[in-house]
Amino acid sequence: MSEVILEAIDLAKSYGKGHTRVDVLRGASLSVARGELVAVVGASGAGKSTLLHIMGGLDTPGGGNVLYKGQPISRMWGGRLDMVRNRVFGFVFQFYHLLREFDAVENVLMPRMIRAGALTWLRERRAARREALEILKRLGLGERVTHRPSQLSGGEQQRVAIARALAGGPEILLCDEPTGNLDEVTSVGIVDLLLDLNRQGQTMVVVTHDRSLAAKADRTVEIHRGRIESQ
Ligand SMILES: Nc1ncnc2c1ncn2[C@@H]1O[C@H](COP(=O)(O)OP(=O)(O)OP(=O)(O)O)[C@@H](O)[C@H]1O
Ligand SMILES: [Mg+2]
After folding, report:
1. Nearest Cα to 1, choosing from 31, 38, 41?
2. CA pseudo-torsion sign 109, 112, 117, 121
3. Is the CB of 28 inside a 6 Å radius of any atom of ligand 1?
4. Were both Cys, which of 14, 79, 89, 112 would link to 56 (CB 3.0–4.6 Å)?
5. What integer best gives the mean pLDDT of the chain?
6. pLDDT-derived band of residue 81, with 50, 70 and 90 as boundaries?
7. What domain count does the chain have?
8. Per-residue pLDDT tens over the stretch 185-208
């Protein structure tokens, strides 16, 4: 059994109060081993995005814990928490969330630039740009690096978003319905790309409705009534 790098233990999350209260997660637990591709399925509103955000440190649970290499993320603070958020996780969202005013390579660089601060960025920007161009090329976007999002197809925009998530070499890629907004043919390309990254060793958790992706994952789990069920 390979090393567990990310673990959600007994997560609880509720929204609202009184009679409008919704208990989205009620004791959800999930372990992710290094190199594994875990697909998460479940009905709309089941809590998939909620789970992914909490596992990636973007949101806090009402109860339970997320452990990164055995250490609770919720108890990390300052530099260590920043390090975990920035270096450990790469996020891919359903609607790309690219910045419209910037071209592909700038979009890939943006998170690193913001993270670095002015002085560090002056030192790092050349290497970072080289890396960004390399990733874009690897994802088949070598000819599109100066295109803005409006000049890219949906599939190309999602590739840029994946490139952005991969910049800096995150240990764990968290994808929230990466093909949810794409037509079938384009989806196949993105699924192949994710599977390829996984074969190269990338650990990932992918929320998906895509059966072909779920079928090819190492493991598929379902969120049902706020808990994780193995399929
Ligand atoms: N900020 C919020 N305030 C109140 N309720 C919320 C909030 N975020 C999510 N919810 C509710 O929590 C439930 C789970 O939401 P979540 O986005 O995790 O579902 P999901 O499984 O990702 O659904 P989908 O497949 O439609 O993306 C939904 O009923 C949603 O309405
Ligand atoms: Mg969702």
Report:
1. 31
2. negative
3. no
4. 89
5. 92
6. confident
7. 1
8. 888 989 999 999 999 999 999 999
Angle CA(114)–CA(124)–CA(97) in degrees, nearest 5? Answer: 35
Q: What is the pLDDT of residue 230?
A: 87
The residue whose CA has the least distance to atom 29 of ligand 1 is: 45
Ligand located closest to 209 CA: 1
The CATH number for 78's domain is 3.40.50.300
Pick left, alpha or beta for residue 35 (phi over 0 → left; psi -120 to 50 → alpha; otherwise beta).
left
DSSP string of 144-168, one letter each residue: -TT--GGGS-HHHHHHHHHHHHHTT
Tens digit of pLDDT for each residue in 115-141?
Answer: 788 888 899 999 999 999 999 998 899
Backbone angles phi, psi at 40, to 5 degrees: -115, 120
Task: State residue 143 phi and psi, 5-degree precision.
Answer: -90, 5
Q: Write the Ramachandran bin of 188: left for phi over 0, alpha for psi from -120 to 50, otherwise beta.
A: alpha
Cβ count near 100 (within 10 Å) = 8
193: its two tokens: 């790309």
**Quick check: 57 and 65 in contact, CB under 8 A?**
no
Residue 13 has pLDDT above 70, yes or no: yes
Is the Cβ atom of 45 under 6 angstroms away from ligand 1?
Answer: yes
User: What pLDDT was estimated at residue 87?
Assistant: 83
Instruction: Convert the pLDDT of each residue in 63-73 to its tens digit.
Output: 999 999 999 98
* Residue 207 CA to ligand 2 centre (angstroms): 8
Work out the pLDDT band at 1, boundaries 50, 70, 90.
low
